[in-house]
Specification:
By secondary structure, the chain is an alpha/beta fold. The protein contains 28 helices and 32 strands. It has 6 domains: about 80 residues, Barwin-like endoglucanases; about 80 residues, Vcp-like ATPase, Chain A, domain 2, CATH 3.10.330; about 160 residues, 3-Layer(aba) Sandwich (Rossmann fold), CATH 3.40.50; about 90 residues, Helicase, Ruva Protein, domain 3 (Orthogonal Bundle), CATH 1.10.8.60; about 170 residues, 3-Layer(aba) Sandwich (Rossmann fold); about 90 residues, no CATH class. The strands form 7 sheets. The chain has a 7-stranded antiparallel β-sheet. A 6-stranded mixed β-sheet has the order 2-4-3-6-1-5. The protein is globular, with a radius of gyration of 35 Å. The chain starts with a strand and ends with a helix. The relative contact order is 0.06.
């Protein structure tokens, strides 16, 4: 029989727990295999798997991709060599499965049928570990979470050999755990998404010395003693450590930093010594110290004697006095700069591995892992979700998947009676849709952003009027690099790092920033200049460092600095305190320092650009200086239309055919908000089918609603004599009732634009608001806003810009563009 030897590699995320082995077409041809055939794998023990074709990237690599369960069944790990041959398969007559030692499970009445359905058409050998998923439809009892993979061991199988589970196979389950040397209950590499390079580096440092110590002896070098993993919370540091321990077959000793500390003298050091001694006795072993910064801070910065002694004890245990053999220490922290430098030298923690925020492809992998047991509808595309989850770490994506499932569950709750069993047809129909993920995204934000997160405003480019040039400049500088980075790479240029919006107050600088934050689908951090300043020495600079660090961490990100002049005035202009100068220096360093701002764009706004330090306003820092000036006539027309669009359009009130019925609430809300009838609880709606009229009654008040002869108007007649006409329009065969527009036909927007020269956007918004307030003051139930209301408002709302201010900003604009030679000279002089 043909046989081939291949190297074991990690399975694809979607293949975990499915009993699948991935082979390239050449290997399948040599072994005369077709997709779906069963193969025999032989490592330290014999097992089987079903063959599927590998992705093109794995062709001609001489590897076989199998998950952690198959690797344990074969008695091998990643990088080991296994023999592959076509299997001689028999139909399984009877299989008995039991949980491994240390697992508390009780199987319900339908558990055997559920397990059989999950493992149908799977191949196995007696003694194999067979994973089964606990789902919402078929949960196990005991300490088992829905969606958790439960490994079961085949303790009996008839007949002998490689077996295929079919409909005719009898499946029996036993609650009593079985004592098994390899139980396979740990985390495997398939449970970790998007960290392939980091796992490979960790395996080199840990698995190789444990499995092949002779290599290090031959080379005459000591094996590595420790690995320090650092990165933001939730990226998977603890998960990687557990997976490495499980896959390498090592004993795992985990302790969180604070657990070691004690109030009694010498007890903290004693706990540390006992931990290392126990690990030595049970070698090969891995000691995992989580939150390392809590027990090993910089000794020169701590005041307590206990911390200093613990650091000294840890240094002693890691080198010098204790020879550790096959014991490796893994540390994890998200504050690497707070750790004592003596620990970070070779011979203690030999290698430092950053576990960073996942990129787009890595987010897809993580989402695939967390949605394995989830019934996803066809409209869910994990690639699209990965595209919009910038800055999400593994823990955030896990929370997102869980929240989406909860949203789906809430949709089915009205059909479920809490005191009765859930009907099987409801369980089988449950699906998580793309709308569930959209709703979950509104509640789950990147954990790194929680301190600085602002609600991204619902402002689109349609809400920005009269700023076409400024809008185009910002789209080119911000949106293009974020959405199409490959175009800039192809051209060999770097996108702008920063955009400075300057101009008179009220022209829409902050509005532009809100719109770009919403339209670019990026993370958005908004910082107002004054909130960064502190009276404590160094705090302001630290605040700026922290903000930029967060922005890099959750890139692509837009960092908006409002009121830039408050934190970056010209240096050398103030006497006394040098705090503002240090802040400017820190800002200059962050914008154009050694550490690059990749996929981070800084937008700043100011109406005092002349007092902003000139070093900031150069290429490489704020590359684009965008003047946001007062709008012209066409711009003012556009702004008026934006602010009056709700008044100028008809609004849908209710569907005539749905009253009384589904649209009762819409009708009553309209009567309450617009026509003054009381609130919903005390209102009754009736319909007279003879003359097709509707009556809404509230105590002594009522309104009769009828349609006129042509059916084009709905006539509202109140018992106090008031009458209102609403329009009835046929939409797709349905009679919808619309409230008339609130803006009178005599309102001429072009005339208003002519009357509002030198008005900025904020002035026009104030003018529109004042016109509506005047109309309400006349009659609280008024139906139309007329031109006279706007004319009166013009007397109250004056333009914020005066003649001298316009000339001042025009001169500034010329100065930033280059200006005259005299202006250039004076500008360079104070720079």
């Amino acid at each position: 029989m043909d046989e081939i030897t291949l190297t074991v590699a990690k399975a694809y995320p979607n293949d975990s727990g499915r009993g699948i082995a991935r082979l390239d077409p050449h290997t399948m041809m040599v072994l005369q295999l077709t997709p779906g055939d069963i193969i025999e794998l032989e490592g330290k023990r014999r097992t089987s798997a079903k063959v599927w074709r590998a992705d093109r990237i794995d062709w001609d690599q001489d590897i076989i991709r199998v998950d952690g369960f198959i690797r344990q069944n074969a008695g091998g790990g990643i990088g080991d060599r296994v023999k592959i041959r076509k299997a001689d398969v028999k139909i399984a007559n009877r299989i008995v499965l039991a949980p491994p030692e240390g697992t508390s499970i009780q199987f319900g009445g339908e558990a055997e049928d559920m397990v059989k359905r999950q493992i149908m058409k799977r191949s196995m050998v007696k003694g194999d570990i067979i994973p089964v998923m606990s789902t919402m439809a078929h949960p196990f009892l005991g300490r088992v979470v829905t969606g958790q993979t439960i490994p079961l061991i085949a303790i009996e199988a008839e007949p002998e050999g490689i077996l295929l589970i079919t409909e005719a196979t009898e499946i029996k389950l036993r609650d009593k755990p079985v004592v098994q040397e390899v139980i396979g209950t740990g985390i495997t590499y398939e449970d970790i998404g998007g960290l392939s390079d980091e796992i490979q580096r960790l395996r080199e440092m840990i698995e190789l010395p444990m499995k092949h110590p002779e290599v290090f002896e031959k080379l005459g070098i000591e094996s590595p003693k420790g690995v320090l993993m650092y990165g933001p919370p939730g990226t998977g540091k603890t998960l990687i450590a557990r997976a490495v321990a499980n896959e390498s077959g090592s004993n795992f000793f985990s302790i969180a930093g604070p657990e070691i500390m004690s109030k009694y003298y010498g007890e903290s050091e004693q706990r540390l010594r006992e931990l290392f001694e126990q690990a030595n006795k049970e070698a090969p072993s891995i000691i995992f110290i989580d939150e390392l910064d809590s027990i090993a801070p910089k000794r020169e910065e701590v005041t307590g004697e206990v911390e200093r002694r613990v650091v000294a004890q840890l240094l002693t245990m890691m080198d010098g006095l204790e020879e550790r053999g096959q014991v490796v220490v893994i540390g994890a922290t998200n504050r690497i700069d707070a750790i004592d430098p003596a620990l970070r030298r070779p011979g203690r923690f030999d290698r430092e591995i950053e576990i960073g925020v996942p990129n787009r492809n890595e987010r897809v992998e993580i989402l695939q892992i967390h949605t394995r047991g989830m019934p996803l509808s066809e409209d869910v595309r994990l690639d699209d979700i990965a595209d919009i989850t910038h800055g999400f770490v593994g823990a955030d994506l896990s929370s997102l998947a869980r929240e989406a499932a909860m949203k789906a569950l809430r949709r089915y709750l009205p059909q479920i009676k809490l005191d009765e069993a859930v009907p099987r047809e409801i369980l089988n129909s449950m699906q998580v849709t793309v709308s569930d993920f959209d709703a979950a995204l509104k509640e789950v934000e990147p954990s790194a952003m929680r301190e600085v997160l602002v609600e991204i405003p619902e402002v689109s480019w349609d809400d920005v009027g009269g700023l076409d040039d400024a809008r185009q400049e910002i789209i080119e500088a911000v949106e293009w690099p974020i959405k199409n980075p490959e175009k800039f790479e192809r051209m060999g240029i770097k996108p702008p790092k920063g955009v400075l919006l300057y101009g008179p107050p009220g022209t829409g600088k902050t509005l532009l920033a809100k719109a770009i934050a919403n339209e670019s689908s990026s993370n958005f951090i908004s910082i107002r200049g004054p909130q960064l300043l502190s009276k404590w020495l160094g705090d302001s600079e630290k605040a700026i460092r922290d903000v930029f660090k967060k922005a890099r961490q959750v890139a692509p990100c837009i960092l908006f600095l409002d009121e830039l002049d408050a934190i970056a005035p010209i240096r050398g202009m103030e006497m006394g305190s040098k705090a503002s100068e240090r802040v400017v220096n820190q800002l200059l360093t962050e914008l154009d320092g050694v550490e690059t701002l990749k996929n981070v764009v800084v937008i700043a706004a100011t109406n005092r650009p002349e007092i902003v330090d000139p070093a900031l306003i150069r290429s490489g820092r704020f590359d684009r200086l965008v003047f946001v000036g007062p709008p012209g006539r066409d711009g003012r027309i556009e702004i008026f239309r934006i602010h009056l669009k709700n008044l100028a359009n008809e609004t849908h009130v209710f569907n005539w055919d749905n009253v009384p019925g589904n649209d009762n609430i819409k009708l009553i809300k309209f009567l309450k908000d617009d026509l003054g009838i009381s609130h919903q609880e005390s209102v009754k709606v009736t319909r007279n089918e003879t003359d097709k009229t509707i009556r809404v009654i509230n105590e002594e008040r009522f309104v009769d609603i009828s349609r006129n002869e042509t059916g084009e108007l709905a006539v509202f007649k109140f018992n106090d004599g008031r009458t209102y006409n609403l329009r009835v329009r046929k939409d797709n065969g349905r009679s919808n009732v619309y409230d008339e527009k609130k803006l009178s036909d005599d309102v001429n927007i072009e005339e208003l634009a002519d009357l509002t020269e030198n008005y900025v956007g904020a002035d026009i918004e104030s003018l529109c608001r004042e016109a509506v307030m005047l109309a309400l003051r006349e009659d609280f139930n008024i139906r139309k806003i007329e031109m006279r209301h706007f004319r009166t408002s013009l007397k109250k709302v004056r333009p914020a810009l005066v003649e001298g201010m316009i000339e001042y900003y025009e001169k500034l604009q010329e100065q930033f563009k280059g200006g005259t030679k005299q202006e250039q000279k004076s500008y360079i002089g104070y720079r």
